[in-house]
Amino acid sequence: MSLSFDVLWLNTSPSLKHFDQPLLQSLSQHHTVAQWTYKQSLDEASSIDQAVLLLHDYLQCQQRPIHLAGHGISGVVGLTYARRFPEQVRSLTLLAVGAQPAITWQAHYYVQRQLIACSRQQLLACTTRSLFGPQFPHPAKALVALLNHDLEEAPSPHSLFKLATLPKGGVTMPLMVCGSKTDPVVHPPVLQEWLSYFKSDDTLWQCPDGRHFFHYFQPQLVAEQMRRFWRCLEAQQVLTDYFPLKVNHQ
């Protein structure tokens, strides 16, 4: 069976997938968008590598490289996949992923657990206010419950006992990195560290607001930036096909 889509959106945080939907709806107006979801069980070891291998199995039937995109830890999985299987990826778009990919909201939470003497629920309530700001999209208790589930379901490399680091660096295919100027986790200086790894066709864009889930609060703005990035790549490909490089044979 062959797969037919232009864009593959990754979601390795099923409890938070609701916050992806406005962006995906906007993107789907101009592109064929597929979603790939990964959910680890409570008995399964937390592993980015396992998610990457399952994603590769899924994309074996794809006949051409695709635009890969993801937010947070889902973007980290996409980054890891793109580095291991570059022939499968036309471009990579990362939302709220720092140049040190291990900087996620889960890492932010575990750092706070080490510094603040309070219960898990109390700290998650504070984390909710930090991630979403004053404009809660849902009741605070519901958001706390979603974050609590994400700590258990997402393939995060962090725990109470250890904060992990992941390899820095870029990718061989065109890369777009998006963030928010008000993100308390992947804040602007962390985001701008990407510039030292960029190629000439890579792009960095910052949303003016929206905190960590800026793609939920500003879906049309984010979608337009992503579409602009893809249109530029398509235009470059047309030029390359129309004016192929001449090879001198001696």
What does this structure look like?
With 250 residues, the chain is an alpha/beta fold. It has a domain at 7-100 and 166-242: 3-Layer(aba) Sandwich (Rossmann fold), CATH 3.40.50. The protein is 41% helix and 14% strand. It has helices spanning 21-27, 48-59, 73-84, 105-115, 120-132, 140-153, 188-192, 214-217, 219-242; strands spanning 7-11, 33-37, 66-71, 89-95, 175-180, 203-207. The chain has a 6-stranded parallel beta sheet with strand order 2-1-3-4-5-6, with helices on both faces. Helix 1 packs parallel to helix 9, helix 4 crosses helix 5 and helix 5 packs across helix 6 (140-153). It starts with 6 loop residues before the first strand and ends in an 8-residue tail after the last helix. Mean pLDDT is 92; it is low at 246-250. InterPro entries: AB_hydrolase_1, AB_hydrolase_fold. Residues 50-224 form the AB hydrolase-1 domain. This is AB hydrolase-1 domain-containing protein.
Notable features of this structure?
250 residues, alpha/beta, Rossmann fold, 6-stranded parallel sheet, 9 helices, disordered C terminus, AB_hydrolase_1, AB_hydrolase_fold, AB hydrolase-1 domain-containing protein
What CATH calls the topology of one domain is Rossmann fold
Order of helices and strands: EHEHEHEHHHEHEHH
Mean pLDDT: 92
Provide the gyration radius in Å.
Answer: 19 Å
CATH architecture of one domain: 3-Layer(aba) Sandwich
CATH superfamily of one domain: Alpha/Beta hydrolase fold, catalytic domain
How much strand? 5-15%
Spatial order of the strands forming the largest sheet: 2-1-3-4-5-6
Q: What structural class do the secondary elements suggest?
A: alpha/beta
What would the principal axes of the Cα set say about the shape? globular
Number of strands: 6
Low-pLDDT windows of residues: 246-250
- Specify the number of helices: 9
The percent of residues in helical segments reads 40-55%
What's the CATH first level of one domain?
A: Alpha Beta
Q: Termini separation (Å)?
A: 46 Å
Organism: Stenomitos frigidus ULC18
Protein name: AB hydrolase-1 domain-containing protein
InterPro entries: AB_hydrolase_1, AB_hydrolase_fold
